[in-house]
Design goal:
Helix content: 25-40%
Number of strands: 13
Largest sheet: 7 strands, mixed
Distance between the termini: 19 Å
CATH class of the largest domain: Alpha Beta
CATH superfamily of the largest domain: Phosphoglycerate mutase-like
Radius of gyration: 20 Å
CATH architecture of the largest domain: 3-Layer(aba) Sandwich
Oligomer: single chain
Structural class: alpha/beta
Number of helices: 10
Shape: globular
């Protein structure tokens, strides 16, 4: 629906004295209790909005975790509001660094149990999102990390390039895709950037590297050249990232991405369902976020979300 109002937010959670608590906000203007969220600003992506709104409303800096649902409801104007939610673990450092003060938008923040939040929240759609989050709690997979499979941006076509395939550069559209990807990918706070050494891949992660301060690691084992030569070492590259249990971006090529997703599934004991294969069928500049448990490795893939390029 092109006339819809889009928004994004998160169920923020942490442990306090050994008990899992979630964050609710008491809004000043409406006198209600809700989950942190807000409308997408022009040019923003949904993940970018979720992180920004949480920071603005609560003072907390968070990394997104598993998606926990989408709510939609009619506004007084007759337009539909569509809100995308993620789970977001809040670190002690983030709490200590928060500069929140009561203001014209948010009167108070409160950490409460999931049970208490059910009775607190003012709107049924919020309760449904909380129930989705509760399923993660019940399954013991609230704490997660993300392996992000990124396809390089649009590159100069092989037919119009005289040099080696690995030296093909991004087109102007590919450069724009790389810049937008950087804005979205920061929402998961990747700790590592691993890329094929092909120019089109290195250029795709350059904006993210500049924004995050992470120096990309070149991995010939996930390059298209090594794949076509039969010398690829996708299992080795993916296995290292799974074992590290830290969020990472792996930038590669269309033919290699199915192998990357397959190896993530194998490394986590996940059945190769169609959803895993479909998540590898990315357009140039697209990416899939594979969520894995940071505390229960045998639980396999918790969720996969796929993001298509807007440019």
């Amino acid at each position: 629906m092109t006339n819809a109002v889009y928004a994004a937010g998160a169920v923020c959670w942490r442990y306090i004295d050994g008990k899992l608590m979630v964050l609710v906000i008491h809004r000043t203007r409406y006198g209600d209790v809700t989950i942190p969220k807000g409308k997408v600003d022009p040019g923003e992506t949904l993940p970018q909005t979720a992180v920004r709104e949480i920071k603005e409303e609560t003072g907390l800096t968070v990394a997104l975790g598993v998606p926990v649902g989408i709510s939609s409801y009619p506004l007084a104007s007759g337009r539909e509001k569509i809100v995308h939610y993620w789970a977001a673990e809040v670190s002690d450092k983030a709490v200590a660094s928060s500069t929140f003060l009561p203001n014209g938008e948010v009167a108070a923040l409160e950490w409460v149990s999931v049970k208490k939040a059910r009775g607190y929240l003012s709107y049924p759609p919020d309760v449904e999102i909380l129930e989705n989050f509760q399923r993660l709690v019940d399954d013991g997979v609230t704490s997660t990390f993300a392996l992000i499979a990124l396809r390089h941006g649009k590159a100069t076509s092989p037919g119009s390039w005289d040099g080696p395939d690995a030296t093909r550069p991004l087109t102007e559209r590919g450069v724009r895709q790389a810049a937008e990807d950087a804005l979205s990918l920061q929402a998961w706070h990747p700790r590592k950037i691993v890329t094929s050494p092909a120019v089109r891949c290195v250029a795709t992660v350059a904006p993210l590297a500049a924004a995050s301060g992470i120096v990309p690691k070149h991995a010939p084992g996930i390059s298209q050249d090594s794949y076509e030569e039969g010398t690829a070492s996708v299992r080795e590259v993916v296995g290292k990232r799974v074992r590290s249990m830290k969020s990472a971006v792996l930038c590669s090529h269309g033919p290699v991405l199915p192998e990357i997703l397959r190896e993530i599934a194998l490394a986590t004991g996940t059945a190769m369902g169609s959803y895993v294969r479909e998540s590898a069928a990315l357009e140039t500049g697209g990416f899939s976020v594979v969520h894995l448990s940071a505390t229960n490795p045998s639980s396999g893939i918790i969720a996969i979300e796929t993001h298509s390029p807007r440019v």
